[in-house]
């Protein structure tokens, strides 16, 4: 990425501190993702128990993500993230202690993971909303690309590190490392101090109205966020396209890919080659996102999503494993490029005071709908066959991405926000049905 230390890290010291803390936390999460199933199995749990504990961590995301968006637009976002990190640190430390002492039970682990999921639901919208307060608009793409680089790299490094930790110290030791990563992230957030912007209390808009929404009720604030989504064609259409990707494409990776690898490719080793290749491609995509400066970022994101949506076709192609791995690396480039440009576009064009609420709708759609695809993929493949199901996934997903590209609002969205603020929807609740509207 140019020099040893990227310019955005040298120029933006607060972001640099946050980047270090979040990098450690992301790596810890990748370790936990591998270690947690082994933790359940180590206490005599079944495959169903593994699913129960995993689902317990995801369900709160569906329930609390929108609330997390509202509160992240009300309160200082770094404080919400700090509280979330402390809770998640305590949860992982408690799980580690229970495993070390032999007191862990499936029900207790599921309860702790549910608490973890609640903290996660508040962290995600706050994290998206905090970045524009730390980094100038013209450097947001670079900052998001660096974060994506860490996430992609951890996909390669994290599982290997987790395997070493589980072998050396057991699942409890691996989860203790995750707890330590949250502690490190919390320490960094505590040092950020006050951050300017709307995340720190009520502000007054130019029209004399409250920008923070603290004069509104909770549901009214949610409606304000939803109006910001539906008033912008590129936002709601982008969210729909991302939902199609999560529901249709990702099951080919998480469910049907491993099935095909076991049946025809020789097992887990062959699948690992494909997964690592995808991770390496994702790293390349993040580097591209850091270096490239597209004038129409959402148009590039739509093309990248169309490339990423070919994963099911590639997996089911019947090509040699090395060829599948090479093509999956290309889709990895597309995935990283698409999501860096998408998140940057939200941060640039959505008013900062409502950004966390809009982000919470984005996270909700991704998290809420993905389990639907994961549940349906297996039965559909049993009924239609694995390869026809994979080809059908591609036939649905690629046109959805191309339809996004066909929209003028997507193709023409500029990289920077118009100085007039013409793309900003006013932040005020809609009148109740039947209410009179004055002149």
TrEMBL record:
CDD domains linked: MFS_MefA_like
Q: Does the keyword Transmembrane helix apply?
A: yes
Instruction: Give the UniProt keywords, A-Z.
Output: Cell membrane, Membrane, Transmembrane, Transmembrane helix, Transport
Report which residue ranges the record marks as coiled coil: none
Region named Disordered: 415-439
A matching Pfam family = MFS_3
Subcellular compartments: Cell membrane
The protein's topology relative to the membrane is: Multi-pass membrane protein
Please give the start and end residues of each transmembrane region: 50-70, 155-176, 233-258, 270-290, 297-315, 321-342, 363-380, 386-407
Recorded protein name is MFS transporter
């Amino acid at each position: 990425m140019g020099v040893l230390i990227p310019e955005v890290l040298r120029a933006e010291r607060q972001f640099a501190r946050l980047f270090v803390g979040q990098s450690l936390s992301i790596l810890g999460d990748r370790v936990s993702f591998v270690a947690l199933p082994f933790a359940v199995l180590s206490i005599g749990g079944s495959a169903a128990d593994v699913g129960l504990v995993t689902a317990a961590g995801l369900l709160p995301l569906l329930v609390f993500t929108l609330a997390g968006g509202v509160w992240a637009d009300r309160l200082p976002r770094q404080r919400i993230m700090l509280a979330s990190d402390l809770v998640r640190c305590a949860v992982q430390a408690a799980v580690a202690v229970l495993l070390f002492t032999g007191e862990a039970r499936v029900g207790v682990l599921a309860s702790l993971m549910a608490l973890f999921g609640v903290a996660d639901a508040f962290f995600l919208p706050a994290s998206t909303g905090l970045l524009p307060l730390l980094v100038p608009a013209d450097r947001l793409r670079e900052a998001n690309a660096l974060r994506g680089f860490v996430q992609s790299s951890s996909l390669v490094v994290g599982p290997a590190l987790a395997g070493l930790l589980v072998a050396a110290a057991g699942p409890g030791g691996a989860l203790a490392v995750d707890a330590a990563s949250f502690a490190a992230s919390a320490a960094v957030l505590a040092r950020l101090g006050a951050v300017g912007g709307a995340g720190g209390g009520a502000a007054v808009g130019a029209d004399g109205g409250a920008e923070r929404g603290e004069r509104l009720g909770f549901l009214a604030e949610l409606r304000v966020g939803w109006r910001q989504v539906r008033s912008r064609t590129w936002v709601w259409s982008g969210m729909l396209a991302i939902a199609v990707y999560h529901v249709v494409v990702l099951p080919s990776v998480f469910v049907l890919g491993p099935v095909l690898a076991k049946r025809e490719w020789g097992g887990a080793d062959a699948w690992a080659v494909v997964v690592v290749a995808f991770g390496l491609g994702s790293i390349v995509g993040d580097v591209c996102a850091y270096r490239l400066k597209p004038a129409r970022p959402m148009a590039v994101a739509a093309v990248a999503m169309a490339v990423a949506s070919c994963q099911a076709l590639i997996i089911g192609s019947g090509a040699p494993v090395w060829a599948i791995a090479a093509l999956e690396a290309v889709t990895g480039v597309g995935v990283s490029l698409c999501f860096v440009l998408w998140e940057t576009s939200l941060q640039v064009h959505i008013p900062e005071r409502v950004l966390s609420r809009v982000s919470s709708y984005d996270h909700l759609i991704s998290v809420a709908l993905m389990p639907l695809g994961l549940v349906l993929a297996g039965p559909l493949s049993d009924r239609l066959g694995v390869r026809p199901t994979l080809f059908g996934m591609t036939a649905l997903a690629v046109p959805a991405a191309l339809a996004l590209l066909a929209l003028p609002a997507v193709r023409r969205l500029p990289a920077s926000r118009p100085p007039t603020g013409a793309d900003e929807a006013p932040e005020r609740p809609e009148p109740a049905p039947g209410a009179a509207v004055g002149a």
